[in-house]
Write a structure and sequence with these properties.
- The complex is a heterodimer.
- Chain A starts with a helix and ends in a 13-residue tail after the last helix.
- Chain A contains three helices and no strands.
- In chain A, helix 1 (4-24) packs antiparallel against helix 2 (28-53) and helix 2 packs antiparallel against helix 3.
- The longest helix of chain A has 31 residues, at 59-89.
- The radius of gyration of chain A is 17 Å and the shape is elongated.
- Helix content of chain A is 76%, strand content 0%.
- In chain B, helix 1 (6-21) packs antiparallel against helix 4 (109-128) and helix 15 (323-351) runs antiparallel to helix 20 (445-460).
- Chain B starts with 5 loop residues before the first helix and ends with a helix.
- Chain B has a two-stranded antiparallel sheet with strand order 1-2.
- By secondary structure, chain B is mostly helical.
- Classes of the chains: A mainly alpha, B mainly alpha.
- Chain A binds chain B through residues 19, 22-24, 31, 94-95, 98, 100-102, and chain B through 582-583, 585-590, 593-594, 597.
Chain lengths: 102, 611
C-alpha cells in the first residue's frame, strides 16, 4: 500500500510549483493557472487524509468538492477581471498594472 | 386654565404656517397671524376668568430627565402671568391689526407677520413658563425676534447695524443671566421657579450665593430692559418698522426684564442688597434717559429714551418693594407707549416726517392721531386723572416708604423731566405753527382703531387701582407681594406730584411756546445728552481699541500657532511620513507574494521551534 507520505510529497511538490509560478510569472493568466495548481495540491491533501484517517466518511471529499467549486468561481471572476484589464491596458503583464502605486 | 399653552402654540403655529406658506394664505398670512394672536387674547379672558374662579394653577410635564434631573415643560397661572398674558396679547393684537395698512406695501409682508407671531409666541411663553430654563429659551427667542424685526429692512445699513447692536448688547446681559440661572440650579437642584423661591426663603441657599445669583439674573434684565449700561441698543431699535418699535417698547422685549424681576421677586427680596442695587440702578437709568429724551429731535428717539426712563422707573419701583406699583406702571406704560409709537407711525405714514423740528401744527392736519397721541402723552407724563398718574403715584408711595428722602427727591426730579419731555412733544409737534408744508392725511381705520383702543386703556387704566373688573377690588388685591395693598394715596405726595407735573408743563409751555431762553442755561448738559453722554462713542472706542486689538492678537495666535503648527503641522507630518513609506509599496504583485510567503515560512519556523 502506498504510504500517505507519498501523497503528501506529491502535494507538496505541486504546491511549490504553483507557488513558484505565482511569484515568478508576470503573465496574469499564468499566475491564475499557478494558483489553480496550489489549490489542487490542497485537494490532493484533503482526499489523501480523508482516505487514510477516516475511510468511509465523506468529510474530506466534501471539502475537496467545495474547493473545486470555489476555485471555479474564482477563475471565472479572475478571468473576467483579466479580460477587462486587457481591454483597458492591452496587456496582462502584472508589472505594468500599477496604476494605484507610485 | 389647562389650555393656556394654546396661547403660545397658536402664534407659534402661525409662525410656521405664515413663514413657510405666507403668500398663499388669506391676507398674505396676516389674517392667520392675527387670528392666532386673537386666540391668545381670547384665552387670556378664559384663563383669567378661570383663575378668578379656581385660583392659581401650576401645570407641568416632563420634557426629559437625565440622571435624576428632571427638566420640565410647565406653565404657571398666577396673577402675574395672567396679567402679563393680557397685556402682551392685547398689544400684539393691536399692533398686528395696525400693521395691516402700515406694512401693506412691504415685499416681505408675510415674513413680517411670521416674525411677529414668533415674537408674540416667545413672549407669551416667557410669561407662562414655570421654570427658569424654559424662561431662558423664550428669553433668547425674544432676543432673536427683536433681531429679525429691528433688522426687517436689512437692506438699510443702519437697520442691519441696529439689529446686530440690539442682539449683541442684550446677549451680554443674557450670559450673566444664564450663569445666574445655573448657579440657582446648582444651589436649589431645580430650574422650577417655585422650588428655587422656596429654597431661597428657607435659607438653604447661602446668602452670598443668593445675592450673586440674583444680581446675575438682574444682569439679564439689564440687557433686555435696557438699563444702564446696556441701554444703548434701545434707541437704535427704532430702525425697525414703527409698529415693531411699539411692540418691543411696550409689551414684549423690554418688559421681559421687569417681568423677570417681578417673577423672581422673592429671590431678590431675600438676597441682601439686591433690591437696593435694582432700585438705584433703575433710578440712575431713568434720570439719564430722561435727560436724553429732552434733547433728542427724532420723534421715535424721544419715545425710545422715554421708554428707557420708564423702565428704570419700574425697576426703581420693584427695587423699593413696590411690586404692585411696578407692575401697575408696566401696564399703564405699555398701553400709553404702544399708543405713542403707533401714533408716531401714523404721523410718519401721514406726513412722512420723523424729526420733530419739521413738525408743528399737526393738530389741524391729523386731528385724530393728534388727539390720541396727546392722550397717551398725558397719561405717560402722569397728568391726573389718566392712567399713568395713578401708577406713578403707587410707585412714589412705595419709594417714600422704603427709600430715603434723597431718592424720593430724585424721583420727583424724574417726574418733572418726564412731564417736561412729553409736554415738549405735545407743544412742538401738535401745537404752534407748521414748520414744513407737507401734505398730511389721516390714517385709515386699521391704524386708528388699535390706537383708539389703546388710548381708551391708557386713559382709564387709573381705575384699575380702585376696581379691577372681575375681581371687584383694586389691582393691589390681585397682584401683590406678601400682602394685599389698598390704593393708599399719600395726600402730600399726590399734591406734590401734581405740582411737579404742572411745573413740567409750565416750563415746556414757556420754552417751546413763548421761547424762553431757559434751554441756553442748560446748554453744556444738553450737549452732553445730545451725544448720549458719549456712551456710544465709549463703546465704539472700546470695541475698536480693546476688543478688536485683542481679537487681532487672537487671530495671529490662531494663524501662527493653531493653524500653522497645529493643523498644518499634523498634515505636513503625515505627508512626510507617507513620502518615506510609499517606497515600500512597490505595486509589484510578486513582491507582495514573496513577503506573504516569507512571513508564512518565518511564522512556521517559529511555530515549529516553539513547540
Amino acid at each position: 500500500m502506498i504510504p500517505v507520505t507519498a501523497y503528501l510529497v506529491v502535494s507538496g511538490l505541486l504546491f511549490c510549483i504553483g507557488l513558484y509560478g505565482v511569484l515568478a510569472r508576470r503573465n496574469a493568466v499564468l499566475i491564475l493557472m499557478s494558483i489553480e495548481l496550489m489549490l489542487n495540491a490542497v485537494n490532493i491533501n484533503l482526499v489523501a487524509f480523508s482516505r487514510y484517517l477516516a475511510p468511509g466518511e465523506f468529510t474530506g471529499l466534501v471539502f475537496a468538492i467545495f474547493v473545486i467549486t470555489v476555485a471555479a468561481a474564482e477563475v471565472g471572476l479572475a478571468l473576467a477581471i483579466i479580460i477587462r484589464l486587457y481591454r483597458n491596458k492591452a496587456t496582462v503583464n502584472v508589472d505594468e498594472i500599477d496604476l494605484l502605486k507610485w | 386654565m389647562e389650555w393656556a399653552w394654546i396661547a403660545v402654540a397658536a402664534p407659534l403655529t402661525a409662525f410656521v404656517l405664515v413663514g413657510l406658506r405666507g403668500k398663499w394664505l388669506p391676507g398674505r398670512g396676516a389674517y392667520v397671524a392675527i387670528a392666532a394672536i386673537g386666540i391668545a387674547f381670547a384665552l387670556f379672558w378664559y384663563v383669567g376668568a378661570d383663575f378668578l374662579d379656581r385660583g392659581a394653577g401650576h401645570f407641568s410635564m416632563t420634557w426629559f430627565s437625565s440622571g435624576g434631573t428632571r427638566l420640565a415643560l410647565g406653565m404657571i397661572i398666577d396673577p402675574l402671568s395672567v396679567f402679563m398674558l393680557g397685556i402682551v396679547s392685547l398689544v400684539a393684537l393691536g399692533v398686528q391689526v395696525y400693521s395691516l395698512k402700515y406694512m401693506e406695501h412691504e415685499a416681505r409682508f408675510s415674513w413680517y407677520y411670521a416674525a411677529h407671531s414668533l415674537f408674540a409666541a416667545s413672549m407669551l411663553g416667557l410669561v407662562l413658563s414655570d421654570n427658569l430654563l424654559l424662561l431662558y429659551v423664550a428669553w433668547e427667542l425674544v432676543g432673536l425676534c427683536s433681531y429679525l424685526l429691528i433688522g426687517f429692512w436689512y437692506e438699510k445699513r443702519s437697520a442691519a447695524e441696529a439689529a446686530k447692536k440690539a442682539f449683541i448688547t442684550t446677549r451680554i446681559g443674557d450670559v450673566a443671566m444664564l450663569i445666574g440661572i445655573l448657579m440657582l440650579f446648582k444651589a436649589a437642584g431645580s430650574f422650577d421657579i417655585s422650588t428655587i423661591i422656596a429654597a431661597a426663603e428657607a435659607g438653604t441657599i447661602s446668602s452670598g450665593t443668593l445675592t450673586v445669583a440674583a444680581l446675575l439674573l438682574f444682569g439679564g434684565a439689564i440687557g433686555k430692559s435696557a438699563q444702564f449700561p446696556l441701554h444703548v441698543w434701545l434707541p437704535d431699535a427704532m430702525e425697525g418698522p414703527t409698529p415693531v418699535s411699539a411692540l418691543i417698547h411696550a409689551a414684549t422685549m423690554v418688559v421681559a426684564g421687569v417681568y423677570l424681576v417681578a417673577r423672581a421677586f422673592p429671590i431678590f427680596a431675600v438676597a441682601p442688597g439686591a433690591m437696593q442695587v435694582i432700585a438705584l440702578l433703575g433710578l440712575f437709568t431713568a434720570l439719564l434717559a430722561a435727560t436724553m429724551a429732552l434733547v433728542m429731535t427724532n420723534l421715535k428717539q424721544v419715545l425710545a429714551y422715554s421708554t428707557i426712563s420708564h423702565l428704570g422707573f419700574m425697576m426703581l419701583a420693584l427695587g423699593s418693594l413696590g411690586y404692585t406699583g411696578g407692575m401697575y406702571h408696566l401696564m399703564t406704560h405699555a398701553f400709553a407707549k404702544a399708543l405713542l409709537f403707533l401714533a408716531a407711525g401714523s404721523i410718519a405714514h401721514g406726513t412722512g416726517l420723523t424729526d420733530i423740528k419739521d413738525m408743528g401744527g399737526l393738530w389741524r392736519k391729523m386731528p385724530l392721531t393728534s388727539t390720541l397721541f396727546i392722550l397717551g402723552a398725558l397719561s405717560l407724563a402722569g397728568v391726573p386723572p389718566f392712567g399713568g398718574f395713578f401708577s406713578k403715584d403707587e410707585v412714589l408711595a412705595a419709594v417714600s416708604h422704603n427709600q430715603g428722602p434723597l431718592v424720593l427727591g430724585l424721583t420727583m426730579v424724574l417726574a418733572l423731566l418726564s412731564a417736561l419731555y412729553m409736554a415738549r412733544l405735545v407743544f412742538v409737534v401738535f401745537l404752534g405753527k407748521s414748520r414744513s408744508d407737507v401734505h398730511a392725511h389721516e390714517s385709515p381705520w386699521h391704524m386708528v382703531l388699535p390706537m383708539a383702543v389703546l388710548a381708551y386703556l391708557a386713559v382709564t387704566a387709573g381705575a384699575a387701582a380702585f376696581y379691577l373688573p372681575g375681581t371687584g377690588e383694586g389691582l393691589g388685591h390681585f397682584l401683590f407681594f406678601e400682602e394685599a395693598e389698598e390704593f393708599h394715596p399719600l395726600w402730600w405726595l399726590l399734591i406734590a406730584s401734581v405740582l411737579v407735573v404742572g411745573l413740567g408743563f409750565f416750563i415746556a409751555w414757556g420754552i417751546y411756546q413763548r421761547g424762553w431762553a431757559l434751554a441756553r442755561v442748560f446748554e453744556p448738559v444738553a450737549r452732553l445728552a445730545r451725544r448720549k453722554y458719549y456712551m456710544d462713542d465709549l463703546y465704539q472706542w472700546s470695541i475698536d481699541h480693546v476688543v478688536l486689538v485683542f481679537s487681532r492678537m487672537v487671530a495671529v495666535f490662531d494663524r501662527v500657532v493653531v493653524n500653522d503648527k497645529g493643523v498644518n503641522g499634523g498634515g505636513i507630518l503625515t505627508a512626510l511620513l507617507g513620502k518615506r513609506l510609499r517606497y515600500h509599496e512597490t505595486g509589484r504583485l510578486y513582491n507582495y507574494g514573496l513577503v506573504m510567503v516569507g512571513a508564512i515560512v518565518v511564522l512556521g519556523v517559529i511555530a515549529t521551534l516553539l513547540r
